[in-house]
């Protein structure tokens, strides 16, 4: 007989185990609602007396009379006695005085009322009799449970409310906990005071002189454009888990906080605010006043961000807080620019940039969102009253000189033909060989367009094989212009109108209005050849929703990235930097191998001024700023620039003018890992903590930020800035859309922590910084019809993929009640005088204690392994599964009989269970702490501590759990798995029946080991392979050696069961179609890792097998599920839920 089987039989008794297995509709006993007070003599409910319990555990005879001074533990038996009295004859009091004579109507109403009262009383008495009968038939533990539930409200009323209220704690001091735990978990109460105490105690600070191994994370600095959103909460949760885990594991853990000035983004929101509140533009108030407005905004929202980070529990080292425009970081930016310029890596030139005609500045690639259009699409563009047409390929002809005919070209941007300076053909295209070196004539200005040969840009099989070239307005055309020494003609003004280069006929027209006029003009000349739908990609500014225009502006500052990009490539190839997940390494290689020089100058007012001064000599004829690139002096300050100017122009008078442009925000951000540690100074932090350990960030900024940090770190810091890059998914809304302020789907994490009414969500949107046409209240009303319930910080850690459904988040918050109640149960059973052991001896423990410690050991190993591999969802799943399904659902339920019965024979088991429970809870809380810091600290502080041990003052600086070799017991776990799987399978069959009475259950065992484990269950009829399988049974396959049967005759509706299975089959078919569609998608076999493809193929095969099995009959006459073929069918279907979840995750 296996140990788990013996243990369950000993603990629960034959009757109770039968109730657990056969009568699975009976609920398991709940944990006691309230524990005893400190001065109560006992912590357990009074056990059933021998007079009340039959040998089988049944209630018999009347309960004893209640004590004249009943204690709280006696409430169960007082209640039983009251139920017993309800069946006794009614005792009448003294005769009442005759009542006043009633009129007929009043008498009729009173009679009806009395009749209803009588019916109600009869109904009540009938219910009482039924309840009493049920009590006679239930095990003693079920009686305790039902009566305790009935009187739960009364028990709460009898408690002293002040015992459950935490005292006010002075700021920064350790939280003063209430004597007793509250009945339910309350996030706002639990999370109060702990953070201030952690911070004031110095637990967040790292020591640069420490001999511990360093573990360093630099938090991606959130933009000061506004409050944090739910995506930032994911970043904070992941990074805080890493830091807390490493801190508990003995590392000198440093997590550096910071805020980014976010040049363009912040300027845009402040401009909107000015226009909305004061109806002013930035140009009307001037640069200095505008910068003052931005600084006010920074002070307001910088404080908001810091408050949010505190509420999220982020264990950041606030003594090292940084702002990208503070003095230290500004010095680093200037130093970097000057050094790179001296090394020849920064230069000034006329090159193509991404230009935003609304912001009137060049923008970086990260500000450009690319959308793919499949056909003609009308889009709303800022500054245009009506939508603009895109996704159309327009063909037109250029007349050839000397009357040689015409050459047809096509474009999706017809307005750029005003800037065409050539037509390219393939050198081997026979159709145009006779035109090589000849010219076409521009129909509107007479400009000659040379017909050039270029094999790189022209595909002779596409379209007409001739390509118009506008070098100043297309990246590919720009390179053609460079290769062929073409003229670069910009035809747009800064605000997107046609300039004088476009000709008097179109000058001053908005670019998309000019499209229509150009087409009409071409038609008038007979050169228009038609239009058709086409696939195209549009670049749209994420800040303004304007179409980004590639064009050449006045000279800009550029960083030559070629050399630094090669170093960044080698760093990943040599594994000096590890990218997690590794599939993004190919994207890294592809982007850096095709990198272009980086334009770092921006034409706006908020940011780091370019540290360059233009020298204007007194006798210069040309006074235009920047007209001569050789006159620029790059220096750390104006005084330093003056010294350099005197050397270059000795004896001449000059004026210095600093470049009005500012640097790209990503330039200062690229220096962040260096700058926050004190670079360019040789600081102790820089020597101790650089390079950092890991960068955790979103995939969307892999290139614009991560790659540039690697380039800058290796060039200026002499080493890579971090050793690992962990890329988390992007948080989307319920509908799979990226959260964006302009969509109105952004959620403030504090709205999830504190809760928010629907009215509050709408008001926050309406009072925000959105344009009226950006508000999306209708979607908000649909997504959050009841607002957001209070969830607390812990709710973020259950939502891993990341289409955020707030209802699921609220559901996960409820799990904290499970933790809360587990500790409340333990506090009641451990007792106020309990002193935990320093160590526990496993050898003399009951099997259930050995099993739970072995399971805890396995969960610990899985958690640590997953954390080391940056598989955070696996780590949280391992912890959650142990707490939920092993500790709470099995162990705590199994040991309750030890505490509900006081015979001396249980004393040793009771002591062992008490010690094991404490070890499990204390270790489990430490295991969980990195993910749920607030509630674990609160519960850990409630647990008693060993008298003769040096326990830390806080859980966050306690040692993280590690494997304990003597706890591992694989054989016991395997046997226990069989027992639990058997119980679960029978329960799953039981839930399919329509009746609640007990039914015979059978176990077909195919091996001696399984038989030895199962045969002790008196409620199961053991069968061997030689026995005939029973008819009219449902079957569930536990494993290859064990199947269970449950008698179903008369308990199941066969037609209804067939309908259920038909619906399940439809679900499997949909999943199979989704996996097939995913595997057939273009690029799947080239891009998906081999391991993913193999996993998808296994799922595809399993689903196909499910469908094949589903086509076979389920019921045959009276022999339900009798044949082996149908046994396999049901066994496969019992795994349907698991397979479906795995497949859905893969498809997602």
Average of per-residue pLDDT values: 79
The largest pleated sheet is described as: 4 strands, mixed
**If helices are DSSP runs of H or I spanning 4 or more residues, what is the number of helices?**
36
* Shape, principal axes of CA atoms: globular
End-to-end C-alpha gap = 45 Å
CATH topology of the largest domain: Rossmann fold
Task: Please tally the β strands and state the result.
Answer: 33
Radius of gyration: 38 Å
CATH class of the largest domain: Alpha Beta
Helix content: 40-55%
Spatial strand order of the main sheet: 14-15-13-16
* Total individual domains: 7
Runs in which pLDDT lies below 50 for 5 or more consecutive residues are 1-100, 136-141, 143-161, 761-767, 772-801, 1112-1148
Q: Strand percentage, roughly?
A: 5-15%
Enzyme class: ligase
GO molecular function, one term: ATP binding
Keywords: Aminoacyl-tRNA synthetase, ATP-binding, Coiled coil, Cytoplasm, Ligase, Nucleotide-binding, Protein biosynthesis
Domain Aminoacyl-tRNA synthetase class Ia: 194-757
Give the gist of this structure.
The protein has 1148 residues and is of the alpha+beta class. It contains 36 helices and 33 strands.
């Amino acid at each position: 007989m296996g140990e788990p089987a013996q243990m369950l039989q000993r603990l629960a008794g034959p009757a109770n185990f039968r109730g657990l297995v056969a009568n699975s509709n009976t609920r398991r006993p709940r944990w006691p609602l309230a524990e005893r007070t400190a001065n109560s003599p006992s912590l357990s409910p009074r056990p059933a007396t021998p007079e009340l319990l039959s040998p089988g555990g049944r209630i018999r005879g009347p309960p004893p009379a209640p004590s004249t001074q009943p204690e709280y533990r006696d409430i169960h038996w007082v209640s039983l006695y009251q139920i017993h009295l309800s069946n006794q004859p009614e005792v009448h009091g003294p005769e009442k005085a005759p009542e006043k004579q009633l009129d007929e109507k009043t008498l009729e109403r009173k009679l009806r009322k009395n009749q209803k009262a009588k019916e109600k009383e009869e109904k009540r008495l009938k219910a009482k009799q039924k309840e009493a009968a049920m009590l006679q038939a239930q095990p003693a533990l079920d009686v305790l449970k039902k009566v305790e539930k009935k009187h739960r409200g009364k028990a709460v009323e009898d408690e002293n409310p002040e015992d459950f209220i935490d005292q006010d704690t002075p700021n920064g001091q350790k939280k003063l906990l209430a004597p007793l735990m509250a009945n339910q978990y309350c996030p706002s109460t639990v999370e109060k005071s702990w953070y201030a105490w952690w911070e004031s105690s110095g637990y967040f600070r790292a020591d640069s002189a420490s001999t511990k191994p360093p573990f360093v994370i630099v938090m991606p600095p959130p933009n000061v454009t506004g409050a944090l959103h739910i995506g930032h909460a994911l970043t904070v949760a992941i990074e805080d888990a890493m830091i807390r885990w490493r801190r508990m594991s003995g590392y000198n853990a440093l997590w550096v906080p910071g805020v980014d000035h976010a040049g363009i983004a912040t300027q845009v929101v402040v401009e909107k605010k000015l226009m909305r509140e004061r109806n002013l533009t930035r140009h009307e108030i001037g640069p200095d006043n505008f910068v003052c407005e931005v600084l006010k905004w920074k002070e307001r929202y910088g404080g908001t961000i810091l408050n949010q980070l505190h509420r999220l529990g982020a264990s950041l080292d606030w003594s090292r807080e940084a702002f990208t425009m503070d003095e230290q970081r500004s010095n680093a930016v200037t130093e970097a620019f000057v050094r790179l310029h001296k090394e020849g890596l920064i230069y000034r030139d006329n090159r193509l940039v991404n230009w935003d005609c609304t912001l009137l500045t060049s923008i970086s690639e990260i500000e450009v969102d690319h959308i793919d259009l499949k056909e003609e699409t009308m889009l709303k563009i800022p500054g245009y009253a009506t939508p603009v047409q895109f996704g159309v390929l327009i063909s037109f002809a250029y007349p050839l000189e000397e009357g040689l005919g015409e050459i047809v070209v096509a474009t999706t941007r017809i307005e750029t033909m005003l800037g065409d300076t050539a037509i390219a053909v393939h050198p081997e295209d026979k159709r145009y060989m006779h035109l090589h070196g000849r010219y076409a004539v521009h129909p509107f200005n007479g400009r000659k367009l040379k017909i050039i040969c270029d094999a790189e840009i022209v595909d002779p099989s596409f379209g007409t094989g001739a390509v118009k070239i506008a070098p100043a307005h297309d990246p590919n055309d720009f390179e053609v212009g460079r290769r062929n020494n073409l003229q670069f003609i910009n035809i747009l003004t800064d605000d997107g109108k046609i300039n004088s280069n476009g000709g008097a006929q179109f000058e001053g027209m908005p670019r998309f209005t000019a499209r229509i006029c150009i087409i009409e003009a071409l038609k008038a000349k007979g050169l228009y050849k038609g239009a058709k739908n086409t696939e195209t990609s549009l670049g749209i500014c994420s800040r303004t929703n304007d179409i980004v225009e590639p064009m050449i502006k006045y000279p800009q500052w550029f960083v030559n990235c070629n050399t630094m990009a090669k170093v960044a490539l080698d760093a990943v190839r040599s594994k000096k930097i590890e990218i997690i997940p590794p599939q993004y390494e190919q994207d890294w290689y592809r982007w850096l191998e095709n990198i272009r020089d980086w334009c770092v100058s921006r034409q706006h007012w908020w940011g780091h001024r370019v540290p360059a001064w233009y020298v204007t000599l007194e006798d210069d004829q040309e006074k235009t700023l920047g007209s001569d690139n050789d006159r620029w002096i790059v220096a750390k300050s104006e005084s330093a620039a003056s010294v350099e100017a005197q050397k270059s122009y000795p004896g001449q008078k000059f004026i210095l003018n600093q470049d009005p442009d500012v640097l790209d925000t990503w330039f200062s951000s690229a220096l962040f890992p260096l700058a926050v540690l004190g670079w360019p100074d040789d600081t102790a932090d820089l020597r101790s903590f650089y390079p950092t350990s890991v960068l955790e960030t979103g995939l969307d900024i892999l290139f614009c930020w991560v790659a540039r940090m690697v380039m800058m770190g290796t060039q200026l810091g002499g080493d890579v800035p971090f050793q690992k890059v962990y890329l988390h998914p992007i948080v989307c809304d319920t509908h799979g859309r990226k959260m964006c302020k302009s969509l109105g789907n952004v959620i403030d994490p504090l709205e999830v922590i504190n809760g928010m009414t629907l009215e509050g969500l709408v008001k926050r949107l309406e009072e925000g910084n959105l344009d009226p046409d950006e508000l999306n209240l209708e979607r908000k009303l649909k997504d959050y019809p009841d607002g957001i319930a209070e969830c607390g910080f812990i709710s973020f850690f259950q939502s891993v993929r990341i289409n955020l459904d707030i209802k699921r988040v609220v559901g996960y918050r409820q799990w904290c009640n499970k933790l809360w109640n587990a500790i409340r149960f333990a506090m009641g059973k451990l007792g106020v005088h309990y002193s935990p052991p320093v160590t526990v001896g496993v050898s003399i423990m009951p099997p259930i204690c050995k099993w739970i410690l072995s399971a805890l050991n396995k969960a610990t190993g899985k958690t640590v392994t997953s954390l080391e591999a940056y598989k955070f969802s696996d780590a949280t799943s391992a912890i959650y599964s142990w707490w939920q399904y092993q500790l709470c659902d099995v162990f705590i339920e199994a040991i309750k009989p030890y505490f509900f019965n006081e015979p001396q024979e249980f004393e040793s088991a009771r002591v062992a269970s008490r010690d094991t429970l404490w070890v499990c809870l204390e270790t489990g809380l430490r295991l969980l702490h990195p993910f749920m810091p607030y509630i674990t600290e609160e519960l850990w502080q409630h647990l008693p501590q060993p008298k003769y041990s040096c326990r830390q003052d806080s859980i966050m600086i306690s040692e993280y759990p590690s494997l304990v070799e003597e706890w591992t017991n694989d054989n016991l776990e395997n046997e226990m798995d069989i027992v639990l799987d058997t119980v679960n399978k029978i329960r799953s069959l039981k839930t399919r029946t329509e009746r609640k009475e007990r039914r015979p259950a059978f176990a077909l065992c195919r091996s001696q080991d399984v038989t030895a484990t199962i045969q002790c269950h008196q409620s199961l009829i053991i069968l061997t392979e030689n026995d005939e399988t029973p008819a009219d049974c449902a079957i569930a396959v536990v494993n290859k050696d064990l199947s269970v049967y449950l008698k179903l005759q008369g308990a199941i509706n066969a037609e209804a069961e067939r309908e259920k299975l038909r619906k399940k089959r439809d679900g499997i078919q949909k999943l199979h179609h989704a996996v097939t569609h995913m595997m057939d998608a273009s690029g799947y076999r080239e891009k998906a890792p081999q391991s993913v493809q193999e996993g998808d193929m296994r799922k595809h095969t399993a689903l196909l097998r499910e469908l094949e099995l589903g086509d076979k009959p389920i019921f045959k006459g009276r022999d339900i599920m009798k044949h082996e073929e149908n046994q396999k069918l049901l066994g496969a279907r019992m795994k349907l839920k698991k397979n479906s979840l795995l497949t859905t995750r893969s498809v997602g």
